[in-house]
Fold this protein.
Amino acid sequence: MSTTRSLLLDVAGLRAWYGASQVLHGVDLRIHAGEVVALAGRNGSGRSTFAKALMSMVAADGVRRFAGVDLAPLRTFEIARLGLGYVAEQRDVFPTLSVDE
């Protein structure tokens, strides 16, 4: 019995920049429905830039598809409406809220 899992995220040749500085150099990643994936690496390795590139928050090119939809022409809010999101790891995301709130 074979199990067919749909391709949820397809990234190929992803490159990203902050101004003139290229940060990502041809990243490839495929995630199928039901998989759990973690990005790990030292500071400055490009994890946050990868997520920001998926969300069109930094200049990027390469294949970026989520659930079969090409993300490249979409704006950040349109990508979020598809169900993909990015939450920064800074501690000040909600600086005035308590844990209970």
Residues 7-81 form a domain with the Rossmann fold fold (CATH 3.40.50.300). The chain has one domain: 7-81. Helices lie at 47-54, 76-81. The longest strand covers residues 7-18.
